[in-house]
Amino acid sequence: MPALADGVRGGDVRSIAKALTLVEGDPGTRKGLVGDLFPHTGGAHIIGMTGPPGVGKSTIVDAMITVLRERGERVGVIAVDPTSPFTGGAILGDRIRMVEHSTDPEVFVRSMGSRGSLGGLGPATADAVTVLDAAGFDTILVETVGAGQAEVDIVRASHTTLVVEVPGLGDDVQVMKAGLMEIGDVFVVNKADRPDADRLVVQLESLLSLMDRDEWVPPVVKTVGHDPGTLTNLMKAIADHREYLEGAGIDARGRTIADHWMRLLIEEQALERVIGRMGDGEYSEMVDRVVSKELDPYSAVDDLFARYFST
Questions:
Q1: In terms of pTM, does the model score above 0.85?
Q2: Are strands 186-189 and 220-222 parallel, antiparallel or unpaired?
Q3: Domains of the chain, first to last
Q4: Fewest CB within a 10 Å sphere: which of 132, 194, 213, 310?
């Protein structure tokens, strides 16, 4: 692990790729690797992007890479794709969409499966961000799967959260639903060359004016994702939010990220510990008791914790 960590910190592409594979697929190994890399993180600006499917998130990310590279920044991308509940596989199409950057040594794009996570991020996403941060990337873009308004984990895993919407989805109520409206630091109306784009901007601005927010008022910007030239206002909004965080103390957002990461690990390890201590068939038997109404789910879980966490 120390040798691999050294390779990551040195920016070696093979080491970065191997490290990402380990943190995504080997929980036993990633603990030591993340431990070696974590002290060398904190230099990257983590930008999360979420929104309903089909709004052009990947296209915007691709255009943002172009703009950031023109500025001389090194860019890391983690694109989380849906995972099949049947095979565990993922299409990982974002890597295909961003293929034009594949020959740029200062850009690293990694697709990851969500592994069934309902919050829009895979369980190893935070570890993957650690790898790219330690590797010295200036900006890390994290694109979620696009599950809709339930996909709010990204706000607890990034410094700046972009919420992307498009005009003409057919349901104006969609933009009013709780979750996405509450997490955005910047709202993006993509495909702004479509009719009703200005109407959607007004809707979003009106809704945001009614919400109880801190001193930062999320701006609403228009983009045409396939045209990097239309990203001027978006990139300025991101820079303004970063400046705001630095003035307000970016550690506050960093604390939120750390708290979320630790809670995920507590949940994961508690589950592994309970299942690991149970005998063969014991958990299945308890599930059967719940199905037969002999036990309710709360009592079943209380019983498990009393047995395995009493000391």
A1: no
A2: parallel
A3: 2-249 (3.40.50.300), 261-308 (no CATH)
A4: 310
